[in-house]
Write a structure and sequence with these properties.
single chain, 351 residues, alpha+beta, eight-stranded antiparallel beta sheet, six-stranded antiparallel beta barrel, 7 helices, 26% strand, disordered N terminus
């Protein structure tokens, strides 16, 4: 048996095997791949190379072995037989599924993986977040602006009313007879104009222009000093002139102005009304006298419709109802105003 093995051994490496070599290598066989001797029996002993080798190359490979990475085995069976080596573990560390450059490894089973997206917000989330803040600000402003706007309007009316009273001087009592008119028609459109109380047949009568309150669903009046408003109970419309009568509760009816004589050409006059819903005084003269109207040499604005035209003594000589293309006032003579009031009838309802 030993002689047979020796013959095999010398065939593999081209030389006689020694007695010690034969004694350490039971049941040898020739490995045709590299000229080495491998165990073919069931012996668990590790393979012992028996060929004479040349000095290893720089990367540790022999002359009959292909170049291999340092510390890397080229025999797949060797790893399976002896288990993973230190070199295998280092190689696994360099794979993508190994630990990263920071040395972090996957969390152990059962441990909590830290959330890398904690606190992260998408672009849309950030945009909607800012929109919520902006909408909140707009809601607050929407609640504050109406109250603030009302307060500013009231202060503006009071200030303008004070300026008118100061301009009238000793005749400032005239302002107590003046009213701001606000109406909403059947189509929901709002309008404003001027009104005043005129003494007719011993009775204070509040009058304005017909076009200010025609087809009105609701009408209120407010004094020049921006005091509390009063609801109009009924509206009477004249047929012969642009005149309307406002019926108020007795305690809401202001003191009346006196009826004056017919206006004369070139006569100095003043008007006090609410153009732009602000008390405003204008002074001028009568520029033309016609049977049905007076042309005034003074400027009037939108909202002055219904204003009284007063002479130097504060008496009513006419009522503003229109303006010319160049902004001059046009008034109804007081005599026509009186006759129109006498024939006024109740305005029809919106229904």
């Amino acid at each position: 048996m030993r002689a047979h093995d020796a013959n095999i051994r010398s065939t593999c490496d081209g030389r006689k095997a020694g007695l010690a070599d034969l004694w350490m290598t039971p049941s040898p066989a020739c490995d045709r791949r590299g000229g080495t001797l491998a165990t073919v029996g069931p012996s668990p002993a590790r393979v012992v190379p028996v060929t004479d080798r040349e000095p290893p190359s720089a990367n540790g490979a022999g002359p009959d072995e292909p170049d291999r990475e340092e510390g890397r085995s080229t025999d797949p069976q060797a790893t399976s037989r002896s288990g993973p080596t230190d070199t295998d573990r280092e190689d696994a560390a360099r794979r993508p599924d190994g630990p990263d450059a920071t040395g972090r490894t996957d969390p152990a089973p059962g441990s909590q993986d830290p959330d890398d997206l904690a606190g992260f917000q998408t672009t849309m989330a950030r945009v909607f977040g800012r929109l919520r803040v902006a909408l909140g600000v707009l809601v607050v402003l929407a609640m504050l602006v109406p109250a603030g706007g009302w307060a500013l309007t009231r202060l503006a009316i009071i200030s303008a009313g004070g300026a008118v009273e100061e301009a009238l001087g000793e005749d400032a009592a005239i302002t107590e007879s003046l009213l701001l008119v606000r109406s909403v028609d059947c189509a929901g459109r709002s309008r404003s104009g001027s009104a005043f109380s005129l003494e007719l047949d011993g009775t204070p009568t509040v009058i304005t222009n017909r076009h200010v309150v025609a087809a009105a669903r609701s009408t209120i009046v407010q004094p020049l000093d921006a005091g509390p408003g009063s609801q109009v109970r009924a509206v009477l419309l004249a047929e012969t002139a642009d005149v309307a009568v406002l019926v108020l509760d007795e305690d809401a009816t202001p003191p009346a102005l006196e009826v004056g004589p017919s206006a004369a050409l070139g006569q100095p006059i003043i008007t006090v009304g609410f153009p732009g819903a602000r008390p405003t005084l204008r002074d001028g003269r009568v520029d033309r006298v016609e049977p049905s109207r007076l042309l005034l040499a003074l400027e009037v604005g939108a909202g002055a419709s219904g204003s009284p035209v007063l002479d130097g003594d504060g008496r009513v000589v006419g009522q503003v109802f229109a303006r010319t293309a160049d902004g001059r006032g046009v008034a109804t003579p007081v005599a026509l105003v009186r006759s129109a009031v006498a024939g006024a009838t109740v305005a029809p309802d919106c229904g």
